[in-house]
Every structure is written in C-alpha cells, then in structure tokens.
Amino acid sequence: MKLLLENWRKYLNEVGGLDTSWDNVHINDVFKIIGKSYNEGRKCKSMPATELEQKIKDKESLENIRKNLDPDRIKKANYSFPLIVLVDNGEYKNILDGNHRLAAALADDADVKIKELYNDEFEKLLGDTK
Of 30, 46, 58, 97, which sits most exposed with the smallest number of CB within 10 A? Predict the structure, then answer.
C-alpha cells in the first residue's frame, strides 16, 4: 500500500496533477469524493481506451483537448493511474482528468482505469444548485 501511495504521489508531481483545478474546485476536492488512488474510495472500472473514447458524449470537447495536448506529456503519461470521468445520467460526459493518459493508452491500444465522478457531485462542488 505504501508503494502504491508513493507511486501515486510521484505521478501527480510529475504531471502537475496536484495543481489541477476547475473553476473554484481543486483536484483534492474531487479526491475526497472518489478516492485518491486506484484502491481507495470509489471502485475503478477498466476498459479499452478505444471503448472509453467511443463512450464520451462530448466529442467536441474531446477533439479540442486532443488538439492542444503536449506530445511530451503524452509520452510521459502513465495510464496505469485512473482517469476521472464525469458521468451524467449514466453516460460518460467528458474526461475531467487524464486526457494525456487516454492519449497514451490510445497510442498503445491499451486499457485504462476509470474513476467516475457523477455530475451532481461535481455541480455541488462548483456550488451549482440545479
């Protein structure tokens, strides 16, 4: 377990994930809901990267992100760490965290691990009361 946590910390430091935020929401706020590592918190799902890509509903967002990804970060990306996917009404809306990992997994035709964050949870973090 200690090694897992050390590797997770190393990964986050390498890719700058500790600074990830959306509006006023920090990655640590999300980790409190889904867990910070593969074995912590919400259970991970696993699937081929190509299948995840097909399931993402916001194709325009996926394409815009892909155009702007840093090739060096893709090469360094370790897709053994989970991606965080925003889920709305049972459908995968978009990738909240892990676009470089998805790109690396797609290039290698590999599987990815997924932690789901439900849209209502994310909206509560943002302060949205819809």
Answer: 46
Reported in sequence order, the residue ranges of the chain that DSSP labels E, i.e. its strands, are 21-22, 25-26, 45-48, 83-88, 91-97, 111-118
With residue 19 as reference, give the H or E element that holds it.
none
Domain boundaries, the chain: 2-126
- Integer Cα distance of 56 and 60 in angstroms: 10
Question: From the CA atom positions of the chain, what is the Rg in Å?
Answer: 14
Residue 18 tokens read as 């500790």
This prediction has a pTM of 0.79
Q: Please report how many Cα atoms fall inside a 13 Å half-sphere around the Cα of residue 52, on the Cβ side.
A: 30
On whether the CB atoms of residues 90 and 120 are closer than 8 A, the answer is: no
Return the residue matching tokens 């690396």: 104
Encode pLDDT of 62-73 as tens digits: 887 778 899 999
